[in-house]
Amino acid sequence: MGEFVDKTAFGISLWKWIVLLGFLLASFFIRKFLNLFLRKIKASVPSKDAKSFWVYWRDLKTEKSATEILWCMLGISVVHAIDLPLTFEKYLILGLQVWLSFNIIQLIYISIDALGFMFKDWAAKTETTLDDQLAPFATKTLKILSIVLGVLISLQNFGFNVVSLLAGLGLGGLALALAAQDTVSNLFGSITILFDNPFKVGDHVRIADCEGTVEEIGFRSTRIRTLYNSLVTLPNSVVAKEKIDNMGLRPYRRIRQVLGLHYDTPAEKILQFCEGVRYLILQDEKIVRDSVTVHFTNYNASSLDVLVNFNLTVNDGNEELKRQEVIFCDILKLAKKMGVEFAYPTQTVYLHRPEESQTQAAIN
Questions:
Q1: Which range has the worst mean pLDDT, 8-12, 57-61, 281-285, 337-341?
Q2: In Å, how far from its chain's centre is CA 110?
Q3: Can you tell me the mean pLDDT for 271-287?
Q4: Same domain, yes or no, for 220 and 164?
């Protein structure tokens, strides 16, 4: 048995190949054990009313990355322990270090979400809405920084001169900067939007020819859910330059309607009808009382026009439509009760026939 173990293959002792093969075969069980062990540790984190970073981190799927980190560290230790030939050991450890670095960056990237949830929870407790928008923005910034710094640190650990590498990319960086003008413009546009705060997530806005609810304000673009349920993506550089109509900040909703009455309607009945409509509108508790306007305003081509104008102190579009529907139905009932008829476009044609007039005169 000793003679068999002492034999070599490809310049490496057989017992070392056996150890490496055994480690690879045992890796499946090692990973399972480490994953279960980490789950137990995460489950031991107590729940609290005031959530901390660790409470948020417990709910993230970090076990896989953490398991791979521990496995790589164990693998590097095994490779060093069995004293492999320098060239083979170098490349084997390099592969493990690359995989280790990747999983460390991934673990940090996922863990940043816990910070994001913590920032979001903290921002929800403040009165200002600026921090509500800065929380996801800061989370995305930290994620990008974690990737960039993680790659640079990993390259430095692998023996690359990062400073020289960055300096050598100077000319390429100039070309890249010229090509990335739109990206930089959008980034500054997003910063302008966040600090100028013309709207926030959830507001109903009209930007250029796009109208809808703001769903997300990102690094490059703002996403708006339109009234027909499509998702429009607008570059932040465009949003920062356009006129923004923030309908979500309206203190009330204006309702304006013109009622066309039949030309046969007597003046007294028009005045009574206007008074009745005014009374009906004022019965709604959400009406801005000094905004109610109901007056006979115009002689139209086929109707006598009564302007109905009022404001509702509601923030929801569905509630606005429901209250408007009730008021309009009450107006219809009032019109029917008073015998007031609504006009529709009609024309009366009068025919004048001179020959008939001359014939009638001759008979006389």
A1: 8-12
A2: 20
A3: 93
A4: no
